């Protein structure tokens, strides 16, 4: 095949890969955005149902205070049916019941129907029964209980003394709400298909007009020379860079169009909610009027209307007026912030109830939806950007220089580490954070433990398994081939996560999470071994550590967001299945793309070197290791838990919007993934490893101490950005210093990294408890934490200098 044919073949191969990737990526983003919108839509429907049912419950409570008894409430059937006329539709039929505190049905809208037994069975669901008791509730806010295909909304009913005497339950099928969004889903699919087609067309045109000079190799260089390979690498980057931006542009267009489409429906459902509340209030007022009470003689009407407005954040003002002339009778105009309904039928009167919808509330909800879309889009971009490294890695893997040159193989390790760590940690964090949610949903206890305490055990069991296996299985890992250790470990982790999809009890979940932790210990050992065995120079080691950490950060950021979407829009069980798929994909990708020949060669060479017979355990007797552990490893791992264990509570204590937490995570992840490695590459060769360690600890101190500045929202986001730099720059910088310590080299780099992981697991396990103490201690405790980081940096520098002077003195002697 001549060069021209090779060029055409390469273009076709790359274009084919991108076509498949575009279809998958945009379909995934379409699903992700729809899932987010669907969840937001369901929440706004729930709020509407909750507001209307709360109005009815309050009227029932007023009647009870005036002498009625809930067991003998005349006219209750009419009250329930009138409520259902407002909220039940043909698309989403709703039924309701009034129960006592034990869940026994007192009244229902479905009595005598074919589905009476089915609806009554929902009230015996364990989750529903658990949520029926509002005794310890801080407020009378409604609760949503999952009961299979149905959701059950529960509103407490109180007597005149404030004791709960019953509850109102609303039943509706979740899939019925989804059916209301069919039109939006179809429109979204059309947008997605159009964006896929347009993006592919642009790429085809680009590859057709791509200048020949981009793909033609230097004729003066040998085909297998390093110069020729570098030229091909530049060529690949040029050919991949434009397609990447084209895909991102297509995703942006897709998200903007989808948001505009979804926000229309979002506003419509809020308007429908305001209209329904208006009809309910109008019916109450009209009922009094029909009993002979004139509108101007209704005592307490302004106060009654004010109570309804205060109870519903969707309403801003309600007035009852007699209209003599209205342009709306002539002009067909509508206002998205006003609802006017005619009430009463007296001749000569044109009485209306005018409702002004809260513009502030709608703007707040629309802003919240926009912010969620922005976060979703940003996370999707991170996923796409990271996964788009796959085609380049595949092309490098099948090239001849990769098979023949160790230098080329070593250069390919960092991209594989970053891609592999990203896929693996995305999979792990899709499932890990939601074990507690699943336990709470089951509401089952074992061994007499409270459900709240039991909810923390699956994650604890997983961390414990990872920590113990990282330490106790080291001798076994060292004896077995690395490829075998990696394959078995990744398969165990993938299988355990996938089996969690079928877990039906806390016992099963805890055991499977423990097994997943066992597999993850082997994965972490393998990745650390790739760092050391895939390095020919210290620069390789630095790049590998930075790539591993960047992939880890990206995976955690995307995995947590993706898991939250799946858990809320589908169910928690599905998040485990997705986790298993991701980890299995990680297994296939790393097995296929890694330079195993280089790993075996370096491992054979390392095995001939003299090392301590105790391996990693020998480090515990080394002063330099203990100094590093106390002054660097422990502070670093404690600092890495700040965003997870301290930041959400701190934001809440400051009274900042909830979305601040989401944006804090996003900013922290973006800085850590994309800024940290660049800064490390720029500084590590110029200022030395020791200075990088000191700067890392200094970044942690700065990020904490600047919280004293009186500009909460801005400073909090700046703080998490600095912490992102602390992680993205500091973690690989301190790890690079660690692996180059003589005592670590003596014990073996992979063994030393395993020991470092054990220390990190221990610190991170107990960090949440300490952070809760710091949060309770207020500003003083936070300042002490910041000063401690600064002190660690200072002591590390001083003790290192003293140690060097002693060593120099001994050498002189």
Task: Describe what you observe in this structure.
- Among the domains are: 92-175, 2-Layer Sandwich (Beta-Lactamase), CATH 3.30.450.20; 388-609, MFS general substrate transporter like domains (Growth Hormone, Chain: A, Up-down Bundle); 615-813, Up-down Bundle (Growth Hormone, Chain: A).
- 73% of the residues lie in helices and 7% in strands.
- The chain is built from 29 helices and eight strands.
- It has helices at residues 3-65, 76-87, 116-122, 126-131, 174-179, 182-209, 212-215, 226-290, 301-311, 359-387, 389-397, 400-404, 406-431, 435-442, 451-454, 457-472, 474-479, 482-500, 506-533, 538-569, 572-593, 596-608, 623-640, 642-654, 659-687, 689-705, 712-739, 742-747, 749-812; strands spanning 95-99, 105-108, 143-147, 150-158, 164-173, 315-322, 338-342, 351-357.
- The protein has a five-stranded antiparallel beta sheet, with helices on both faces. A three-stranded antiparallel beta sheet has the order 6-8-7.
- A hairpin with a 2-residue loop joins strand 3 and strand 4 (150-158).
- Helix 1 packs antiparallel against helix 10 (359-387).
- It starts with a helix and ends with a helix.
List keywords for this structure.
Growth Hormone, Chain: A, 29 helices, 3-stranded antiparallel beta sheet, alpha+beta, 813 residues, Beta-Lactamase, 8 strands
Secondary-structure blueprint:
Blueprint: H1 3-65, H2 76-87, E1 95-99, E2 105-108, H3 116-122, H4 126-131, E3 143-147, E4 150-158, E5 164-173, H5 174-179, H6 182-209, H7 212-215, H8 226-290, H9 301-311, E6 315-322, E7 338-342, E8 351-357, H10 359-387, H11 389-397, H12 400-404, H13 406-431, H14 435-442, H15 451-454, H16 457-472, H17 474-479, H18 482-500, H19 506-533, H20 538-569, H21 572-593, H22 596-608, H23 623-640, H24 642-654, H25 659-687, H26 689-705, H27 712-739, H28 742-747, H29 749-812
Antiparallel strand pairs: 1-2, 1-5, 3-4, 4-5, 6-8, 7-8
Helix pairs in contact: 1-2, 1-6, 1-8, 1-10, 1-20, 2-8, 6-8, 8-10, 10-20, 10-25, 11-13, 13-20, 13-21, 16-19, 16-29, 18-19, 18-21, 19-20, 19-29, 20-21, 20-25, 20-27, 23-26, 23-27, 23-29, 24-25, 24-27, 24-29, 25-26, 25-27, 26-27, 26-29
């Amino acid at each position: 095949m001549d060069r021209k044919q090779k060029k055409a073949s390469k273009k076709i191969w790359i274009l084919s890969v991108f076509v498949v990737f575009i279809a998958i990526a945009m379909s995934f983003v379409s699903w992700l955005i729809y899932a987010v919108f669907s969840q937001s839509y369901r929440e706004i429907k729930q709020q509407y149902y909750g507001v209307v049912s709360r109005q009815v419950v309050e009227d029932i409570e007023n009647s009870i205070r005036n002498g009625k008894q809930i067991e003998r409430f005349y006219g209750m059937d009419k009250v329930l049916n009138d409520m259902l006329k407002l909220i039940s539709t043909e698309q989403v039929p709703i039924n309701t019941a009034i129960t006592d505190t034990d869940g026994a049905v007192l009244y229902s809208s479905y009595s005598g129907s074919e589905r009476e037994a089915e609806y009554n069975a929902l009230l015996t669901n364990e989750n529903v029964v658990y949520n029926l008791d509002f005794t310890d509730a801080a407020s009378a806010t409604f609760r949503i209980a999952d009961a299979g295909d149905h959701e059950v909304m529960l509103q407490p009913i109180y007597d005149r003394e404030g004791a709960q005497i019953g509850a109102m339950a609303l039943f509706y099928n979740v899939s019925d709400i989804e059916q209301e969004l069919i039109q939006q889903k179809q429109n979204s699919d059309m947008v997605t298909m159009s964006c896929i087609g347009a993006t592919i067309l642009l790429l085809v045109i680009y590859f057709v007009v791509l200048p020949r000079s981009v793909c033609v190799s230097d004729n003066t260089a040998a085909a297998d020379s390093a110069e020729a390979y570098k030229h091909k690498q530049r060529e690949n980057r040029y050919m991949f860079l434009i397609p990447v931006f084209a895909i991102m542009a297509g995703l942006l267009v897709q998200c903007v169009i989808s948001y505009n489409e979804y926000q229309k429906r979002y506003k419509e459902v809020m308007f429908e909610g305001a209209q329904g509340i208006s009809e309910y209030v109008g019916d109450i007022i009209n009922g009094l009027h029909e009993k002979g009470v004139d509108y101007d003689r209704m005592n307490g009407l302004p106060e009654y209307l004010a109570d309804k407005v205060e109870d519903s954040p969707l309403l801003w003002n309600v007035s009852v007026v007699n209209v003599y002339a209205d342009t709306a009778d002539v002009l067909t105009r509508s206002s998205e912030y006003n609802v006017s309904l005619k009430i009463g039928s007296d001749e000569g009167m044109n009485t209306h109830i005018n409702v002004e919808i809260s513009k502030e509330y709608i703007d707040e909800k629309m802003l919240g939806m926009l912010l969620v879309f922005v976060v979703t889009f940003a996370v999707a971009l991170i996923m796409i950007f990271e996964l788009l490294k796959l085609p380049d890695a595949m092309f490098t893997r099948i090239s001849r220089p990769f098979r023949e040159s160790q230098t080329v193989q070593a250069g390919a390790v960092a991209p594989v580490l970053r891609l592999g760590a990203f896929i693996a940690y995305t999979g792990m964090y899709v499932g890990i954070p939601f074990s507690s949610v699943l336990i709470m949903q089951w509401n089952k206890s074992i061994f007499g433990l409270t459900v709240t305490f039991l909810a923390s055990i699956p994650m604890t069991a997983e961390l414990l398994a990872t920590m113990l296996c990282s330490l106790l299985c080291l001798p076994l890992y060292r004896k077995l081939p690395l490829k075998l250790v990696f394959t078995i470990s990744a398969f165990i982790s993938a299988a355990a996560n996938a089996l969690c999809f079928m877990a039906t009890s806390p016992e099963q979940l805890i055991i499977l999470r423990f097994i997943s932790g066992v597999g993850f210990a082997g994965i972490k050992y393998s990745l650390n071994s790739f760092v050391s065995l895939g390095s020919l120079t210290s620069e390789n080691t630095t790049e590998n550590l930075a790539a591993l950490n960047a992939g880890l950060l990206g995976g955690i950021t995307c995995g947590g967001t993706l898991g939250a979407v799946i858990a809320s829009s589908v169910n928690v069980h599905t998040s485990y299945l997705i986790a298993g798929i991701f980890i299995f994909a990680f297994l296939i990708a790393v097995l296929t793309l890694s330079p195993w020949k280089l790993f075996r060669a370096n491992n054979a060479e390392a095995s001939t070197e003299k090392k301590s017979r105790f391996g990693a355990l020998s480090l515990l007797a080394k002063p330099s290791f203990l100094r590093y552990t106390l002054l660097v490893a422990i502070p670093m791992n404690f600092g890495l838990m700040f965003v997870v264990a301290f930041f959400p509570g701190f934001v809440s204590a400051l009274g900042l919007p909830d979305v601040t937490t989401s944006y804090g995570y996003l900013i922290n992840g973006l800085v850590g993934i994309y800024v940290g490695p660049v800064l490390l590459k720029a500084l590590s060769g110029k200022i030395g490893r020791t200075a990088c360690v000191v700067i890392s600890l200094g970044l942690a101190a700065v990020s904490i101490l600047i919280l004293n500045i009186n500009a909460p929202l801005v400073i909090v986001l700046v703080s998490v950005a600095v912490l992102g730099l602390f992680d993205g720059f500091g973690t690989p910088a301190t790890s690079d210093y660690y692996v180059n310590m003589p005592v670590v080299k003596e014990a073996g780099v992979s063994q030393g990294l395993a020991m470092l992981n054990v220390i990190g697991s221990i610190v991170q396990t107990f960090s949440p408890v300490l952070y809760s103490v710091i949060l309770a201690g207020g500003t003083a405790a936070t300042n002490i934490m910041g000063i401690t980081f600064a002190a660690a940096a200072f002591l590390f520098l001083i003790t290192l200098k003293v140690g060097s002077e002693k060593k120099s003195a001994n050498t002189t002697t």
